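example protein:
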Amino acid sequence: MKNFDIKIDEGSRVPKYQQVANRIYSLIYIEEISNGDKLPSINELSERLYLSRDTIEKAYNWLRKKGVVMAEPSKGYYVNKKKVLHQVGKILYLVNKVSPYKLEVFKTMQEALNKDYDIEFRLFFNDVHIFMDQLGTSFENYDYVVVIPLFHVPKKEHYGLPKQILERIENIPREKLIVLEKKIPDLKENYSCIYQDFEKDINLALTQAINEIKRYGKINLIYPKSYFHSYPIEVKQGFITFCKKNDLAFEVFDVSSLDSCFSAGQAYVVISENDFLEVMIRVKSKKYALGLDIGVISYNDTPIKKLFNVSVLSTDFKKMGELAARCVSERKIIQYKNDFSFIKRSSI
């Protein structure tokens, strides 16, 4: 009989029987427990975890209904691993907003995992309360939970991680948690994470474009302040660090100031998709030649930017999706800083 580890979170809203069942199910799935292995008796597990017999029996009954555990009279409970392997897995993909990049990650995961997993796409619109409602204890019903932990912090211009969100995410078993885009420094234990280092990434990527940028008298960052389009503060910090390091004239402003700050001879780094469209509208209305009269670098690559030959600072979202899929298909924990680079086109 294997001495596998089960920890009970006393502060969790997840019932204790469900915590026991979830952990055993996860151990079976990642092959820490093998087909045919005998599980501890109800009495033994009750004593080991300091839980009532009723709690352990309820957990075992839940596993029996799932078909992953068999009970043999007078012998005990045994793993039916074949039942786990033959089921179509379920993945929750919980993201802060819809964007071409998040859809690319989603599509890449779908293609990589083929028919082995159903992936459910949910949104929480940067909102703490919607996230809490969307996730709740529903992670119990999924084999993996993919989360992009970006939230709007009231009265601030950037994303943060509220305390209640950290506490909720901590309840998710590490072997089924996959975090994308931003690491969670306060999250205990090891977990899968394919992330960006927003401050260093923009600094280094702009450095790749330094010769092009120096052709202009000033470089501007159009940094969103609105609730639905705010970005990590590290992006702004990295931009400022780059400009000071290279002794460049610079300014940071919201799109609401664009008309008064938009003129020939300057370069613009544009973060949000909506702001990018506003910039392109003004380029056209003023009849500026992109890459000559004015320079534009957009954040995150999309087909429309390729079509208009716009230079971008972008991570590789396809690779992010592929690595997330590997966490699932290979049942392993992966931590990887995703690639980020300057892609030169004719707009700068």
User: Anything to note?
Assistant: The chain has a mean pLDDT of 89.
